[in-house]
Please model this.
Amino acid sequence: MRTLVSELTARQGSEVTVSGWVHRIRDLGGVSFVVLRDRSGSAQLVFDTKPAVTLESVISATGTVTANERAPGGVEVRVRDLEVLSPAEVDLPFPVNQDPAKMPLEAILDSRMISLRTPAILSIFRVQSTILRCFADCLRAEGFSEIKTSKLIGTGTEGGTGLFEVAYFEDKVYLTQSPQIYKQALVAAGFERVFEIGPAYRAEKHDTPRHINEFTSLDIELAFIESEQDLMDLEGGILSAIFGGIRESNARDLEAWKASVPDPALCPKIPRVSHDEAREIISRETGKKVYEIAPEGERTLCEWAGKTAGIEAAFVYGYPRKSRPFYTYPADNNRSKSFDLLFRGLEITSGSVRINRYDMLLENLKTFDLPPEGMADYLSIFKYGCPPHGGFAIGLERLTQKILGLGSVKEATLFPRDRRRTRP
Amino acid sequence: MRTLVSELTARQGSEVTVSGWVHRIRDLGGVSFVVLRDRSGSAQLVFDTKPAVTLESVISATGTVTANERAPGGVEVRVRDLEVLSPAEVDLPFPVNQDPAKMPLEAILDSRMISLRTPAILSIFRVQSTILRCFADCLRAEGFSEIKTSKLIGTGTEGGTGLFEVAYFEDKVYLTQSPQIYKQALVAAGFERVFEIGPAYRAEKHDTPRHINEFTSLDIELAFIESEQDLMDLEGGILSAIFGGIRESNARDLEAWKASVPDPALCPKIPRVSHDEAREIISRETGKKVYEIAPEGERTLCEWAGKTAGIEAAFVYGYPRKSRPFYTYPADNNRSKSFDLLFRGLEITSGSVRINRYDMLLENLKTFDLPPEGMADYLSIFKYGCPPHGGFAIGLERLTQKILGLGSVKEATLFPRDRRRTRP
Model:
């Protein structure tokens, strides 16, 4: 029966079998120390003679749990029996037991299969797993259904650019940029409240620390809302659940990155500023007049929110109609019922109230100079009765990146796909 | 403040506002009845004069909740104020308020945007949402982490056939058939226990009621197992959680399909028969000697399990090595440490212990006549220490189909992609 490293402190004096990876080896002549790593943490094993193991080999060791103040966790295992379950070759391509901050990102990603073993790197994805859990739990508690929709579509809802083409038997289809059309269809079909967690694709040639070509989109759509304020209320609640969950479950992972999450109680108080107010704040804070909200402005706005509200996040609403998709509900001739959420300097969410009336949607297609041809499936959602609704999407990797303070979104992606990277 | 239909019984005598879709209209001259449908159910609205509404229009109605024995739920709403939020045109392409069993599958799928409004059809996906929840909850409780891996790979782990090709900038990549390589990488990276819920693709020309080209794979991989029996134990526990969850949350959805789930307590007792025993049972039950387990044999085996164990499910283990992927752990020269789960006549899971030793894997590649070239990333998982492990995958749509007794897996897929269907 295997004992996890995290259970050793409670097993002092007992004989146990621990299993895991050889993280570090230190040979002092008469005695050898091996740091063993398992999914729950690390522990020191003590051998009388140098064990025949290599770094990263997977072993099972049986011995007695003994107190040792200087060992991590205050205990060590004095080994009497060792079994090598899977020996590792010695030409390890990545220094798993070193600080990953010292390694260039390209080296980390080139050796992804091995670099993921680095405890701090694995921590990133334990945090991500918590985000996935808290996101779904929070929405289910609010009556949302989870949906799984196709990632292959005949045409793009948001125009044909930026789409990856797939050879589908004799046909050509595209990878979806978002489940927009489908989540609206499901709201209108009677679910009223849906969420989807799935991959989304952007065939854009950006090569920046905040862009990847395949990401995980946390998508939400809900009916019978009054305005975009309802959507921001919901997102505040979701973030509160996520930050609370991470505080509870990921203390050692936050510690690995010297990171902290905002106070969950402050999420409902994230400042909400109109697009015009946002530009004024940025102008005032930087002393430079701004006309558009650029990435630098997003950082300034989050710093301002940190100072004034204690949380480095800000909702910006009322974006110009022409800068948002055609299905965005207009607020007036120029403004739309849309919003973004900026968190620690980065846009992590885009959302809006959607047009739910067929006549208004047809009119807006004209305004955007888009032909209704090829959109029959999408338009049928509205032609036959569709409740007022809206929604938004959170980028899972960007949220993870900003929670842990990582330099690039690629660090927060298990197997990132970028302009040039298609492996491992 | 909106009241849900399910809350009406408790609100007798009060004035409420209900919102939803016009499901049925009955005009009796002096009085008109409208059945209103929302996410929680249906209720009868009573009007003194015929309201100007069409089927499927979205309305809000304000009135008094009044007892009426003959109305569903024992109450109806006597409406004093009606608002049409979104009028539906009258050429409805699908009869939403009719029994979907009377409609051909092709008509249901061609008008998917509208046919999903049919309450019985929407029920299918409420059950599916429960499956997703219970699957994840059950595994998290067992210490599993949730992962999200790329669906785009340079080469197929299981050979190059059956892959959809994606034009990726100047490169060509493929849609993944399964997250096999990645879930093994994450187990070896130290998570030990992972699950992933994501799309999987098979570019196969099958056109049967049990094949689709894009499906949702519920994938599991875990380390430090002793044998494939551990995997079957785990899957029994997962099914028990799913069936229990559906019993608790989806009574009206099961009722819509006159379906029932097996007793959760019987899941740990699902019969486990070897491949050889399975053939003997099928031969004995049918009176015909069988050499391979064909779909008819799978049905026979499930009927046999229903008679002998009270649950129409059977694990079959020990498949011939040559019929399983190269990474399957051999049991002997001919047999592998693999298994399938058959449920109500259909294979819903395939799994195995995986080869975790580098030397054995290289050897097996030779046996399978596969070149190690192009597999460097995969092989590095094992070259540098990998614990004993195994895993399996459950097809979400097939499980949903069999729980509800649907004729085709396509009915259990929100937006199915098959040989010819790429919309909506």
Chain B touches chain A through 98 residues (CB under 8 Å). The two ends of chain B are 35 Å apart (CA to CA). The longest strand of chain B covers residues 15-27. Residues 116 and 122 of chain B are 6 Å apart (CA to CA).
